[in-house]
Amino acid sequence: MRDLQLPIYLDHSATTPVDKRVVEAMLPFFTEGFGNAASRNHPFGWKAEEGVDYAREQVARLINANPKEIIFTSGATEGDNLGIKGVFEMYARKGNHIITCVTEHKAVLDTCKALEKKGAEVTYLPVNGDGTINLEELKAAFTDKTILVCLMFANNEVGIVHPIKEIAEMTHQHKALFMTDGTQAVGKIPVDVMEMGIDIMAFTAHKMYGPKGVGALYVRRKNPRVKVTAQLDGGGHERGMRSGTLNVPGIVGFGAACEIAQQEMEAEAKRLAALRDKLETSLLQIEESVVNGNVDSRLPHVSNISFKFVEGEGLMMGFNQEIGVSSGSACTSASLEPSYVLKAMGLDDELAHSSIRFSLGRSTTEAQIDYTIEKVTKAVNKMRDLSPLWEMHLEGIDISTIEWADH
Ligand SMILES: *Cc1c(COP(=O)(O)O)cnc(C)c1O
Asked: What's the Cα-to-Cα distance from 189 to each of 16, 79, 92, rounded to whole Å?
């Protein structure tokens, strides 16, 4: 453990470092390959376009799409906006009803809210205690005005993975389009748009060892041919769906990141699942600790754990100089509101506040996990030693029954 470098990064669901091989691939496109990929009449443009074309193939291959179905964006937030708003406008004659879910990322929820002001009817499906949706509830939500179901592949806070293929099938039976926010899943677990029946999918490079500020929207071209209206007007890049000079180095890096993920994903998922399981099993030895989210359908590298009677933010102060993780309140911008995802899963404020998300990645080692287990265990015990609530709990008092004096 003496060789251990601090701090340790266990927040890969928030963002990942750029893989050195990705940086290598990008570098030439800042200098000699600097051209504008839309400059069709000289070698500077051709070289940039070649880089983009190659990356488009690499990105498409990872998700089993055709390169023509890839629209480069600035990231998943833009992809979510383009997909949802683009469908709402393009299919306005068919209907105005969208089905999504309360535990989606804000990029989806806030986009839907914005559309409600423009006449969209949105159904926000609730979730079960383990973060999954009830397929019967989904089935019952369809109307003859339903144009889109938008449901994330894997949740960013608890890592649960929805049964995408089943949901897509049900959506198609009701003649609507199926869109998924694939951000947390692509490059981590197999995602196959053909096999799974995905019509539209947003994803981003910086959550899979690529650079920030670049992502893609997959838009199906066959069975059915899907169209979205552009949300940025301009030069008509990306088949008219997304104008703006392409971020050539970023796109090249995204492509390289996809190729590396495709080659290494399977072995890496196994390695990380073993480390995650070790971390989780050890931390669950701590009294009154629970895993949040369905553990049978979950990303291999994520564990979200609540430690009852301690407050996540306070707990993190015990080790956040050394270990970078997220708490159940960090996800909604800078506020200390408890996570809306955990609350939607039925956790009370206390328990939502006491949760920590550990997300492992390519640089995670066993020594780091061992150190984390030790540090977190000590910090939880120390906080509890200082907590009157914990003392009462040990004395067998049910804290939920206490009537607190007004103040
Ligand atoms: C990170 C994330 C986003 C936003 O992606 P950006 O590329 O940072 O805009 C959207 N959806 C999910 C599920 C995410 O985890």
From this structure: 16, 20, 34
